[in-house]
Design brief:
Number of domains: 2
Number of strands: 14
Shape: globular
Structural class: alpha/beta
Radius of gyration: 23 Å
Strand order of the largest sheet: 3-2-1-4-5-6
CATH superfamily of the largest domain: NAD(P)-binding Rossmann-like Domain
Distance between the termini: 60 Å
CATH class of the largest domain: Alpha Beta
Bound molecules: uridine-5'-diphosphate-xylopyranose
Helix content: 40-55%
Strand content: 5-15%
Number of helices: 19
């Protein structure tokens, strides 16, 4: 079976390389020629651990590669090559609205359709509002020369940035929404190695498959906002949210994953997915069912304002003339993604209020610079902290967890650290003469 992957962002590039790893001949397409040039030369336009190696292991023309993977910008080539097409284009939040922008997915289906002149399966992986797959399937059948033999399946992805390769090759579960037994059989065929390894497969209708993704991300966002709401109560009552979460985690029904309190969630998925879900529920007349997500979103956004307030307090009540070091720019560690990054959002707000903010991140500097050209950037944590009145730890990279507070103490103006991710050891920092503060922990 020959496979194409349309859209080579985080999801598509990972999926393409992983399908080659599973033994398929793979052709990836993107409409941005620079991306295709970079990928064809063996360069990944983002940071994703393990993906570089996997790309070069399979990319045609690379020394010693299997040659199973290549890239193009030609729809014609994609149509002629593929027996199965995976659509991995993004669905960002629409400007000024909660709903997602479906134009990239729609245009992928529309540009592909005229080239589908034999029986084929187009598999959507993008995160879309419930009801989209059915609409896209009907439209595809109308526009493809193959007619109804150009079928659709919906196969949501659950990969986390930073673990994308592992999550694709060893998923918790595979969910496929189909309208025919033939489509189900083809999905089973393409994922045979994963199913043989014991990965559970859930076969559903289109709507359920689409909803699994929205529900999963809503649940994760709710779990994070739950513990962050507890952090607010802890702050009001003098309790310690880290100990609280640790105690909750012993209850197997609750579990400790996604119960890390701090600056809250960001990135290209959770924030926009819960908003798109609310918008879609509204259209369906089911908005009441999801009003709690509005609260989940508010709690999450309040974390950022609270961090700014705490930093202002630590600067003596105002930011003017103060130097603030921000450690972390990516929305989470092991990623260079700065989309809706809580760290950069806080850095930007503080800068706007008059402080001189210097940011350092191990991988996300280029992306951060593009998004916030007004901030200053340093080449190391030590350089960022030089002369700082307060140091903000906002993305929990391993490098920051391992930092020696005594090293940093030598370069700052004042030894004040705010831990926005509740992972630094307060005792260690306090012993080195620092004032350690965190969200939801006693001072
Ligand atoms: C998420 C989902 O996990 C994934 O299944 C889906 O397919 C896409 O969205 P990702 O955006 O890569 O993946 O990041 P994730 O690891 O889920 O983290 C999301 C955000 O939540 C990050 O900003 C992270 O810092 C934050 N987070 C996570 C917390 O604040 N506390 C936690 O306990 C866990």
């Amino acid at each position: 079976m020959r496979i194409t992957v349309i859209g080579t962002g985080y999801l598509g590039t990972t999926h393409a390389a992983c399908m080659a790893e599973l033994g398929f001949e793979v052709l990836g397409l993107d409409i941005v020629p620079e991306k295709i040039e970079a990928l064809s030369a063996g360069r990944i336009p983002m940071y994703e651990p393990g993906l570089d190696e996997l790309l070069r292991k399979h990319l045609v023309g690379m020394p010693g590669s299997t040659g199973r993977l290549r890239f193009t910008t030609s729809w014609e080539e994609v149509g002629a090559f593929g027996d199965m097409h995976f659509v991995c284009t993004n669905t960002p939040q629409r400007r000024g609205e909660f709903a997602c922008d479906m134009s990239y997915v729609e245009s992928a289906f529309d540009l592909l359709a005229p080239h589908l002149d034999r029986p084929t399966l187009v598999v959507g992986k993008s995160t879309v509002p419930v009801g989209s797959a059915e609409r896209l399937a009907d439209r595809l059948a109308e526009r493809a020369p193959a007619g109804a033999a150009a079928e659709v399946a919906w196969n949501p992805e659950f990969l986390r940035e930073g673990y994308a390769v592992n999550d694709t090759l060893h998923p918790d579960r595979i969910v496929v929404g189909v309208r025919s037994e033939a489509a189900e059989a083809r999905m089973r065929e393409v994922y045979t190695p994963l199913l043989d390894a014991g990965t559970p497969l859930v076969v559903t209708d289109f709507a359920t498959a689409e909803l699994v993704k929205a529900a999963a991300n809503s649940f994760l966002a709710t779990k994070i906002s739950f513990i962050n709401a507890m952090a607010e109560v802890c702050e009001a009552s003098g309790a310690d949210v880290v100990q609280l979460a640790g105690a909750l985690a012993y209850d197997e029904r609750i579990g400790g994953k996604f119960l890390n309190s701090g600056l809250g969630f960001g990135g290209g998925c959770l924030p926009k997915d819960i908003r798109a879900f609310m918008a879609r529920a509204g259209e369906l007349g089911a908005d009441q069912a999801l009003t709690f997500l509005r609260e989940v979103d508010s709690i999450n956004m309040r974390r950022r304002s609270r961090m700014v307030e705490l930093a202002r307090e630590q600067c003596g009540g105002g930011f003017l003339g103060r130097r603030v070091a921000v450690l972390g720019a990516a929305f989470k560690p092991n990623s260079d993604d700065v989309r809706d990054s809580p760290a950069l959002n806080v850095a930007g707000q503080i800068q706007l209020q008059g402080a001189q903010v210097t940011v350092y991140d191990p991988k996300a500097m280029d992306n951060a610079r593009k998004l916030f050209p007004g901030l200053s950037f340093a080449e190391s944590a030590l350089e960022a902290a030089t002369g700082a009145h307060v140091v903000l730890h906002l993305t929990e990279w391993q490098e920051f967890r391992e930092m020696d507070p005594r090293d940093l103490a030598g370069v700052v103006s004042e030894r004040r650290i705010l831990d926005g991710r509740n992972v630094l050891d307060p005792q260690r920092w306090r012993e080195a003469g620092w004032t350690y503060r965190a969200l939801g922990r006693p001072s």
